[in-house]
Amino acid sequence: MPGPTILLAEDDDMVRSFVCSILQSHGYRVLPADNGMEAMRLADLVGVNRIDLVLTDIEMPALSGLQLARHLKRLRPGLKVLYMTGHRHVLVDELEAEGLVIEKPFAYSTLVRQVEACLSEELREDEVQSGRTRPSLSV
């Protein structure tokens, strides 16, 4: 059974390939897109309700990661988003209100930890809505 599905939007080929291989090695199903428009096409193709997490670069040509995320969240409120940026000055405070932010360059373990944090938050919300609960872990 495949793991959670992650829509990955990143215009840098090397970064996209690196991130994709890391996530796939951890059992995630990755839908890679080289820009925001391609990511929207993929979301349309597979159905936004089948996407568990959007992992997107912030600054991309044609359609930014922020625009992509806002569009997909209109279609599916509550969709989890993890933003990537190599530019700390880029609307980080605003973005943190909409999803987690990971700064490039990042370590393999940092990426995996942030993705897991986003997805575990989604699982907790689903459990609360369905009436199921599980013990919380303190760190």
Account of the protein in words:
The chain is an alpha/beta fold and 139 residues long. The chain has a single domain (5-130), classed as Rossmann fold, CATH 3.40.50.2300. The protein has five helices and five strands, in the order βαβαβαβαβα. It has helices spanning 13-25, 36-46, 65-75, 92-98, 108-130; strands spanning 5-9, 29-33, 53-57, 80-85, 100-103. It has a five-stranded parallel sheet, sandwiched between helices. β1, α1 and β2 (29-33) form a beta-alpha-beta unit. α2 packs parallel to α3. The longest helix is centred in the C-terminal third of the chain and has 23 residues, at 108-130. It is globular. It starts with a strand and ends in a 9-residue tail after the last helix. The relative contact order is 0.15.
What is the H level of CATH, i.e. the homologous superfamily? Response regulator
Order of helices and strands: EHEHEHEHEH
Structurally, the number of domains stands at 1
Helicity range of the residues?
40-55%
**CA radius of gyration:** 14 Å
The general outline is globular
CATH architecture: 3-Layer(aba) Sandwich
The main β sheet shows up as: 5 strands, parallel
The CA-CA distance between the termini, in Å, is 30 Å
Per the CATH scheme, the topology name is: Rossmann fold
**DSSP strand content:** 15-25%
User: Pairing-aware structural class of the strands and helices?
Assistant: alpha/beta
> Could you give the order of strands across the largest sheet?
2-1-3-4-5
Low-pLDDT ranges: 123-139
Overall pLDDT confidence: 83
